[in-house]
Design brief:
By secondary structure, this protein is an alpha+beta fold. The chain contains seven helices and 22 strands.
Length: 378
């Protein structure tokens, strides 16, 4: 918090000292010569909280030692983190309420609105060497990401705009149960293929996250397409039961997802996609709705990939699907949840959270041609 300390009375002249402090704290802080007085923490070193209101007191002293009456004013802090800054900007497509624990970008592509550009203003430039790279070669820019959502404490969840350059197997075989933290993709994106290819400064801006994972099977039919995003979100965050495998012969009820890995990089959850489509969290990608569901801004085919039959891996597995095999879900170009054997090769887009205390927005409106530029906290 920065305040300007001044005095308009007639009984003190020749001011030589201006000071401020937070009410109920003991230590007065001297202001700059122009009167600006900045407070970053309490007396014990505790930093001021974002969005918190504090009572700031000010006083002045003249050369004769006379002090003014202490005056006070209630002032609320304003976060300089990227998430809070973007929430304040209210860019196009950002939900007005939290959906599955975050304010999310929601929108469908429309040919009348230049395809998918301009539907939601959630482009971010991250991992660049110079800011000039953020606006060059917009169609193929490797530094562009999309904001999935913003948590109430200002943490951004990002997904890479374009897939990584090669296709990956999720795992080496399908005849035994497999875990996400041992998958080939996990090792690749948390290693040289993505995370450690970034400079240490950019790596530090990515939050270490607890990623819950598990199965979304079905006792009556297919998996994620039978559930709303709200129900999927509860499964993905360990708040409700799930079903592992297919049917009652090979499947069984799971009380909650409890498998977890602590890492910086993950893959997409289905709730992230379904919330992005209409904000109501309904999975309507069946039957005649298939072409409509392919219109979400979230889909890989709508983010710079020309192949229409594109498939990208998710973090979600099926459990045992038949007598011999376990499968993994993908998201296809039409918005379907699609299960395949883990030995198949498909595209990958890293997903991660940014440390709210480590990043700010230096410029940008969120449009593809003018992305939010991520930098260090001011």
């Amino acid at each position: 918090i920065t305040v300007t300390v001044g005095y308009t009375g007639n009984d003190i002249s020749g001011i030589v000292q201006r000071q401020c402090k937070i009410n109920n704290q003991n230590n007065w802080k001297d202001a700059e010569p122009n009167g600006d007085c900045t407070i970053n923490s309490l007396d014990d070193g505790t930093k001021l909280k974002d969005g918190q209101e504090y009572t700031i007191e000010g006083r002045v002293r003249d050369a004769s030692g006379r002090k003014s009456t202490v005056v006070s004013q209630d002032i609320a802090t304003k976060s300089n983190s990227a998430g809070k800054q973007i929430l304040d900007k209210k860019p196009k497509g950002l939900s007005e309420k939290e959906l599955g624990g975050m304010y999310r970008f929601v929108g469908q592509c429309d040919a009348a609105n230049n395809g998918c550009d301009g539907i939601v203003d959630n482009f971010v430039c991250f991992g660049y060497e110079t800011e000039d790279q953020c606006k060059s070669d917009i169609a193929n820019n490797e530094y562009l990401y999309r904001i999935i959502g913003i948590s109430s404490d200002g943490k951004l969840k990002l997904i890479k705009n374009r897939a990584l350059d090669k296709e990956y197997m999720w795992w080496e075989d399908a005849d035994r149960e497999f875990k996400w933290e041992r998958s080939l993709i996990y090792k690749a994106i948390n290693g040289n293929d993505f995370l450690t290819s970034l400079s240490q400064d950019w790596q530090n801006k990515i939050a270490t996250t607890v990623w819950l994972y598990g199965d979304v099977g079905s006792n009556i039919g297919f998996g994620p397409d039978l559930l709303s995003a709200d129900e999927l979100y509860k499964i993905e965050t360990g708040q409700r039961e799930a079903w592992s495998g297919y049917g009652t012969k090979y499947g069984h009820k799971v009380d909650k997802w409890t498998d977890k890995v602590i890492a910086k990089i993950g893959l997409l959850y289905f709730s992230d996609y379904y919330y992005s489509y209409n904000g109501e969290g309904m999975t309507i990608c069946t039957g005649t709705d298939v072409n409509v569901c392919g219109n979400s801004w979230f889909l890989l085919q709508n983010n710079g990939t020309t192949r229409k039959q594109i498939l990208e891996w998710t973090i979600v597995t099926t459990g045992r699907w038949d007598q011999t095999s376990y499968y993994v879900y993908l998201l296809d170009a039409y918005g379907f949840a699609f299960a395949q054997l883990p030995m198949n090769k498909h595209y990958v887009r890293p997903v991660f959270f940014l440390e709210s205390s480590e990043v700010s927005v230096s410029e940008g409106t969120g449009r593809r041609e003018d992305p939010f530029v991520i930098g260090g906290v001011n």
